[in-house]
Fold these 3 entries.
Entry 1:
Amino acid sequence: MDNKKVFYLVNSDILPDVFRHVVAAKKLLTTGQAATINDAIRMTGISRSTFYKYKDSVFSFSEGSRGKIITLSLTLSDMPGVLSGILNMVAEEMGNILTINQNIPIHDTANVTISVDTKQMKEGRETLIDRLSGLPGVRKIEVIAQE
């Protein structure tokens, strides 16, 4: 049997509400309106298990038509090992770093932009962002582009 994924374009009016809530939670995370998955699920009224069950299978039309590259803007504390921890976390999640741009730290804050190919990642992009935001020295993460 062929294990190729098949996608359907379906009007959201006929889908269970849970799918709309999962898409809404993903959008809250992508736009930065929710800082963590816990925040997004609380705001949309779904359980964490529901989010994880459907997050990699339910997409808005625009999200499903995107590629697999995500560009993150990170605001970091100027401390040894912070960037190394981020790179290690991306590697653990099987993300492939495409670019890294780091500015000179000002007032103990470093700004870094990272582009990551997410095709081979074990979990979804939201999980990566959630895990990165929990690392010591990570003050803020914003998704600035998805392709």
Entry 2:
Amino acid sequence: MIPDEGIIVWPLHRIKVIRVRELSPDAIPQGDFIIPNFFTTVMPAWEANKGQVVRLSLGYEPLWITDDQARQTYLIDAPILAISEWHRLMIKQGTGRESTVIHGGVDSSVFHPYPKPSAMTGRKTIFYIDRSPSYGYAFKGAQDFWQACARLHGTIPGFELQVVHPEPDPLNTPVPCTLKMAPDDQVMAKLYAEADLFVFTSYFEAFGLPPLEAMACGTAVVTTDCGGTRDYARHGENCLVVPPSDIEALSQAMRDLLLDEGIRDRLTANALSLARAWNWERTAIEVETFPSIS
């Protein structure tokens, strides 16, 4: 269910979408389980009293939303689903309530390696997803990425930048880049896979799926230590992990993976092996063993 003005960014398959004028209790349909996934949707679902409410938290909203209502929605007598151990701890520290971790996964039939153009051209490619601060995504750390790129530009010969920028505002960058569109997972997977390096710069994430998707596509990853990625990201083993907003460390990690083929290949091989185990079948098993659903 989604409000009339709501935008569906990614295609939805085998899912019936119900448009409603507003998310009021009257608009909530009867169901065995009602799963609100953002703080503004929790109270209408709870007040509707039309099924077991399970509070799916895709991010602990008080980290970036000052309205105390966001925290209050965790205090109703409904079970909570978190999406990483770090996320579970944030909810526990903020509300005193426990939650059950259900991890995200990767569909290996979509996210898998492709041949890398750099094998023919010799020019390495960095892929980045730029989210606009103007739309509430300052915590994604895009400014840090561009500062690091500006440091590398001119000092490392022949690398390309490919960027997806989902928001409609213009993208102004200090170094040249190629703006790409990613209307679906298949296109996104190819962008990951054809790159030699994927960079993730968030200050905090409940899980952080893009680095795991990049790993599944056989691409080396530099990620910040943003919380949720700790469940799968291992520094020096399957990726390079740097402190959030540390421009020097970020620049050095990007430089290392662009220039050192041995490190890049070792991390990529380990990451690919790990990502294959983080599939949606694993997620389904976690859901099925969740007490309030089983």
Entry 3:
Amino acid sequence: MRVIFMGTPEFAVESLRAIVDAGYVVPLVVTTPDRQKGRGLKTIQSDVKRFALERGLEVATPESLKDPGFEQLVRSKSPDVICVVAFRILPESIFSIPSRGSFNLHASLLPKYRGAAPINWALINGETESGVTTFFLRRTVDTGSMILQRRVTIDPETTAGELHDVLMSVGAEAVVETLGLIERDAVEPRIQDDTQATPAPKIFRDDCRIEWDLPAERVHDFIRGLSPHPGAFTHRGGTMVKVLRSRSVVEAVADQTMTGDASDTHPGALSSDGRRLFVECRSSRLEVLIVQPEGRRAMSAEEYLRGRPVTPGERFE
């Protein structure tokens, strides 16, 4: 079976690797154009392009998916299937070409978390379960008939980066299984229940500011849902600080020798025993474990406190 693959980031590479290793013919890989980055404007290829070239696969990087020349190229490859993983929205003129259809791998249990950032929003909302879904493409994004789903349990301390890696591997297995179902004409598609749909829109920098006037559990979920990228942030004395890992405090800490005002329950108030850093939230306290001060690398709270100990009245804002 001939499979055209379309994807861009690291998340998609594992699926392409699985397709190739499973023995499917991949006549074309489609990804985003090279971009220039840094002071030297170094040319950067997408993760998918680098892998495809290593495997000797033909790569196309169209500026526009509606370019007639691109459509002609896709048709010339006579694909049985197009597989899409973390790519752009395909026009119908492209996804209708394959004889056996086009499908997408999405990092959520559809119809929950339709959109660009399903992993982040699942964690921000405190979900205890996630997974992947493969579904046939249709005009409206993330709404096509589902082919299969694979579920994973989310640990309360799991970060977005960690869940990304789990779903990347589970997703690759789901992609190969989906191709097998299509090849055997064994797909039993299920229509999505639109009444159960939830959004997972793209996250912008302004969405990442921590609101300390929330319960510690919600702040914790917000932090891990944005870790390591783009990173939930706050400010201390006018300097931005990203908080990359935290935990809700369940043990008593009042009997420890603390700096700062441990009795100050105003949201954002800081206290420390010299090694551990605590922040007051609404009616509860959060321990900050890993931070990244502006312009510096990520570090433990203990290391951060060595360079900037807490003084009375300080707070994250």
